[in-house]
Vacuolar-sorting receptor 3-like (Nicotiana tabacum), 631 residues
Amino acid sequence: MGVSKTWKATNFLGFLWLNLLFQSVVGRFVVEKNSLRVVSPDDIKGTYDSAIGNFGIPQYGGSLPGTVVYPKGNQKGCRNFDDSGISFKSKSGAMPTFVLVDRGDCFFALKVWNAQNAGAAAVLVADDVDERLITMDTPEADGSSAKYIENITIPSALIEKSFAEKLKKAVNAGEMVNVNLDWREAVPHPDDRVEYELWTSSNDECGFKCDMLMKYVKDFKGAAQILEKGGYTQFTPHYITWYCPQAFTVSKQCKSQCINHGRYCAPDPEQDFSTGYEGKDVVIENLRQLCVFKVANETKKPWVWWDYVTDFQIRCPMKEKKYNKECADAVIKSLGLDLRKIEKCMGDPNADEDNPVLKEEQDAQVGKGTRGDVTILPTLVVNNRQYRGKLEKGAVLKAICAGFEETTEPAVCLSDDVETNECRDNNGGCWQDKAANITACKDTFRGRVCECPVVDGVQFKGDGYSSCTASGPGRCKLNNGGCWHDTRDGHTYSACVDNEEGKCSCPPGFKGDGFKSCEDVDECKDKKACQCPECSCKNTWGSYECSCSGDLLYIRDHDTCISKRAREVKSAWAAVWAILIGLAMAGGGAYLVYKYRLRSYMDSEIRAIMAQYMPLDSQNEVPNHVSDERA
């Protein structure tokens, strides 16, 4: 009796997956953990391990405090909590709610999704057996699960059974259980450069995970290239392959899935050997993308890999039957890469020998140091630690930024994509000027910081919590530099001094601290002006007015009064002296003209005439300015 083609294909796929599983068992799978610290009650206070869920958005580089709640119904979280009338939304001013649910009966991701819909800030899943912690992964997404997996935004963690029992006992006893989830050490941050790698595949027909991966690459491309061009990161792409069992290397199935005589294989994209693309097509494109990175890296432009991968996804999809060498070559040429170097790097896929590029990839799959084996696709590794959580731009950027040593983070780490939004609540406890809409609160991936800002090129200085003062040139343009100012009768007075010191000094005619107030000085009362016998003083805001009795005029510079007649006489004599001085200057000027110009001209004329009648032997003929008239 013959064996059907479908059975053979399915059986062969089973062998391949068993082989991959065997490689994983021989290697080492590392569960990425974060710290869970119990703050109260005292009898269970301490720090415990928890395994980061591979979905949702862990707060890498930060921490999250909360109060643990263990629901009385739906304790496994497999049903919608709203159906039971249960809500985990925190009241105003209260700490966020951490929901504790039991493991079992449904997917981990569904438990977290139901808790998130009911208002939970985080989910703790209690293990139901005494065992070492495992990573909660997403299920193979079908139509229903794909809808909620991509929308999970809260963090989650698996905790040991013994620890979970302690939490349940405390909650059931009516005690307030306060805990703190901490991701600050989940990613090492030794220096000012982050090394990260992405284990990916060019296959775009593997369902939800492939769609998620393609979206991530497109969304993260801009940030990745900024980090790489600035020298802040060192990125390396990787591709998972495995080898075909020796007994099947000559089989039709192995030949359709593998290259180099069964050494490097990938599963059939459609899981159907009778139609569509084959596994070896995926391996060859993966190899091409590796060589694109190597050639781009040799030209000191490794970030071009992101351009190629995104362009290939758009221009050469499997659904449009464009997933082939011709389309790939067109993308390579459009990016200005050397096609011959890339083809030389790829080698011969039909050769019965190792391909050095793919052999290096298989060796890299085995975990080293603190990093475990790569068995989940896609996998992101940051500073040799596997990332856990949703593969989404903001979440990944936060994890990468957490890998920098504090204070060395690039500007992209302070962008809107990684903000924690702590400044929305009471301005984060930082200084702010509501009138000018200026605040010292800044959201970062590690939480909010209170730092005096720079506004329109003007630096504010202070502690950031209780005070920030504008400093330097231009500071008076921003809310008057925080100094006192007032306007009356169309005149504006300001205590702001536009200099580096950033001081506030009351203007002349005022006294005060310059910040909150400047009071008008009464020069008349204080006898600082108008002290002559004939003077009368009247105080005005910011100044004073002096007047004299009768026909007298007040002279401010001498603080005295003089008669108008005397002033007129003085003015007349001043005019006379001005005329005399003018005439003297004109005479002097005329004399100089006569002496140096006219006299010189006349002397030359006289000498010319005399030379005509009394020529001297030793004297050359002097030019005559008078024309010779000859008959």
